[in-house]
Amino acid sequence: MDGMSALELIWSGDANLFAIVGLSLFVTLSATVLASVVGMPLGAFAALTRFPGRNVLIVLLNGCMGLPPVVVGLVVFLLLSRSGPLGNLGILFTPQAMIIAQAILITPIIAALTRQVIEDLWAEYRDELTAMGVGRVSRVATLLWDARFSLVTILLAGFGRAAAEVGAVMIVGGNIDGFTRVMTTTIALETSKGNLPLAIGLGLVLIGVILAINALAWAVRGWSERHAG
Fold it and tell me: Distance (Å, rounded) from C-alpha 9 to C-alpha 108?
């Protein structure tokens, strides 16, 4: 019965359900873009540059791929709270705070995977690019472009990770109805309240989004392999 009611909510285009889905996609897409702007150059820099502390940076990036979401949420909460160093921004319990928390979570993932991809390409094209006298900035741009299909897959992986996150966004967003309530936090709340149709409906949509992202990543990978061949 609950499952049928959940499907009815989806097929009928329930305004509340799709408002939550829309906010979730906006927050996650924004966080993924922000994380890519920071993570991809950072990963490429770590792959192509030798500097003191490089190994430490690589270890940190790899280690932070498994950051506990609730810890990230707590750190962002402390930074954005009134007594925190960024409290004057006044964005705690807003979608902006949720975007920041998700971006922090997935930036190490994007940076670490980008570093590995670019490092592999650099090993393949080092002699050629060096002989051509390609500068450091142009070298980064060239390898990022060459790795564009792999990087799209990395971004999709980061998006999927952010879309499924609940702990950090619950802490910094406050799960405010109609303002910061996203799919994962709504599922947790509505399940505790016994409102299973909405929880199941959102769960089905979330699973659909994750499956679509993974299917897209697989398709991009297959297309890039055919394109390369």
Answer: 37
Residue with tokens 């799919």: 183
Of 121, 148, 118, 102, the residue nearest 58 (C-alpha): 118
pTM of the shown model: 0.88
Amino acid, single-letter form, for residue 196:
L
Question: How many Cβ atoms from other residues are within 10 Å of residue 44's Cβ?
Answer: 25
Helix axis angle for 196-228 and 148-163, nearest 10°, is: 170
What's the gap between Cα 229 and its chain centre? 30
Give me 161's structure tokens. Answer: 């990770």
* Cα–Cα dist 205/182, whole Å: 12
Q: What is the C-alpha separation between 62 and 58, in angstroms, rounded? A: 6
Taking Cα atoms as reference points, which of 96, 104, 95 lies closest to residue 74?
104
| Domains, the chain, ordered by start | 13-181 (1.10.3720.10)
The three-class DSSP label of residue 49 is coil
Q: Are 202 and 180 in contact (CB under 8 A)?
A: no
CA distances from 123 to 110, 119, 129, 156, 188 (A): 20, 6, 11, 25, 46
Using the structure block, give the residue that is written with the tokens 């971006």. 103
Q: What is the pLDDT of residues 16-51, one digit of tens each?
A: 888 999 999 999 999 999 999 999 989 988 888 888
